[in-house]
Amino acid sequence: MNDSTVTELLHAWREGDRTALDKLVPLVYSNLRGMAAAHLRRESGSQTIDPTALVHEAYLRLVGDTDPAFHNRAHFLGVASRVMRQILVDRARARNADKRQGGIRVPLDEQVVFTGERAAIVVALDDALVDLEKQDPEKSRLLELKYFGGMTAEESAELLGVPLHKVNRQIRLAQAWLRREFEALPGTIAPESPGDSA
To answer: Has residue 46 been placed in a domain?
Structure first.
C-alpha cells in the first residue's frame, strides 16, 4: 500500500471530497478486516457479528463523520480501531444490560473475546481505558490497540511511530495499572496475568 496515496485521499476527504473515502477503503480494507478479525478472533458460537459486518459498520460511522480530520494512514487506522471498539462496547453494554454478574475475571494475557458471556469484561475494560485515558492517553491507546485491536507491540510501535522498547515498557506499566484497577473494583475477581508481556 502506498502511504502517500492514502494520505492524499485522507486530505481530499477532509477537504470535502466524499468520493475520496470510497477510493481509500479498498487501499486499507485488508488492514481494517485484520483489525476486525482480531477483535473477534476467538469468538465462539454466540457470535453476533463477523469481521466483515464490523468493518462495514465502522465504515458507515466513518462516512457519517462530518469532520474527518485524519492526518495519515496510521491516524486513520487508529481511529477506525477506536470506532470498532465503540461498536463492540455498545453491543456488549446492550447484551449486559439485563444481566448483572457477580464477579468478572479479566484476562490480561490475551485479546478480549466479544461473546455474550464476556460482555461484562468488554464493558469493564472499556470503562477502565476511559479512566486511564484521562491520566495517560498513550498507555490507554496502547492497551486499546492490544486488547481491542489485537495488535502486537511491534504493530503498535509501527502504527504510532514509537520505539518498540518504549511500547513494551508502556504496555507493562499500563497492564499493572489495569490490574490494580480491577482488583479495587467490588465484585471483580483479580485479573489473570500469566503472560503479561507485550
So the answer is: yes
Dump pLDDT digits (tens) for 78-95: 888 888 888 888 887 777
Q: Name the grid cell of 107.
A: 484476562
The whole-angstrom separation of Cα 6 and Cα 24 is 6
CA dihedral for 154, 87, 140, 123, sign (positive or negative) = negative
CB 145 within 8 A of CB 159: yes
Instruction: Give the range of the structural domain holding residue 146, as residue numbers without chain letter.
Output: 3-192
Residues paired with residue 105 on neighbouring β-strands, in sequence order: 189
Give kind and range of the element (H or E) at residue 191.
Answer: strand 188-192
Total residue length of the chain: 198
Tens digit of pLDDT at every position of the chain (198 positions)? 467 888 898 888 888 887 888 888 888 888 888 888 876 764 444 557 788 888 888 888 887 776 667 777 877 888 888 888 888 888 877 776 655 544 444 444 444 444 444 666 777 778 888 899 999 999 988 888 887 777 788 888 887 888 999 999 999 999 898 888 877 765 554 444 434 444
Residue 106: phi and psi, rounded to 5, are -110, 110
**Whole-angstrom Cα Rg for the chain:** 17
Q: What is the total count of domains within the chain?
A: 1
The verdict on residue 198 lying in a domain is: no
* Within-domain flag for 197: no
- The verdict on pTM exceeding 0.90 is no
* Domain membership flag for residue 137: yes
